[in-house]
Amino acid sequence: MLSGDVRRVDQEELQDMLDFAVPLAAVAGYPPNIEPHPSDFAAGASAEWAFFFIAGAAVVILALPWALRAVKNGNPIPILVMISGLICSLEEPMLDILGHLHWANDLTTAFTNFGVPVPALIPLCYVAFLGLMSYFCYFVIRNGATVKHFVMLHAMGLMLDALMETIGINLNVYEYYGVQPFTILGFPYWWGFINGASFVAVGTILAYAVPRLKGAQLGFIIFAAPAGMMINYFVFGSIHILAHNADIAEWIRWVAAAVMMAEMVFAMKIYHHFVGVKGDAPAPNWTLPRMFLFPMLPERKRNELFAKMCREGGVPLDEPLPVGIVAPPPYAQPLEPVPVGAPMPERAPALV
Q1: Structure pTM?
Q2: What is the mean pLDDT of the chain?
């Protein structure tokens, strides 16, 4: 140590200084609100299998033939987005730690990281939500979306996520522990806000990137879901994530969660700024019920609904909508590549 006026600061005094000056760093070591795995509860095989299909496996099984047929027809985007969702599942253990989630201790494990045993149901869940749901967001955005449509997509993702997770929680497959603001039936709705916005973030990245990528460059699409989710969590979600893992008063954590939820809604305007239709430009007349209905319709009915929305929104249809597309979900044909820095086209062509 230096001599003179500089004296040694012992560990206890240093901690006192931290407690006074930096509340967020008041406790050295493991974050104060995190409980390590394993958990002390079990789900049972029936609950695990049921939630395996509910969480995404059933949708992925139905969608895979559609994605493979799209590849055969020269459109690799759907299968690349599904692969992107699969890769994104590697982020799950980090989010479990930061969000305070425990899995049942008797689930089949796919992999372990951050000390978290991630169950085998998670990879296909990510394919369904960060892959297929994000692809639907991309489809809506590429065919012309206003700020209102971005907010609708966010609401749709939020509701689907809340429904799926509430089922899993009440099947005892997992739980959110500790202080979890805005919880209903075991599900903290701040998760719904951040997850729903993540699907739109990935759709935005796709809508911006796909027209600008050509040939082998399309392979970069597999990074869309991991990037979009992390942008959403750590740009717009950071205020809550920091508070959630800090040694601060509970009411501050509630305020941080509320602010973060508002930020997620505002993020829709930011995403729209990059790839949405502007001003009085025409756009299909989507409503929230139509968004839920659209992927579940038979092919011909879906095309008829899309044509109706285009007519209602003033979008010209240059030629009849073709048939022969496999559902679910809808199929969006990539536009011709757009040079880097060039403006986005006003809308994508009709379904092909």
Answers
A1: 0.83
A2: 85
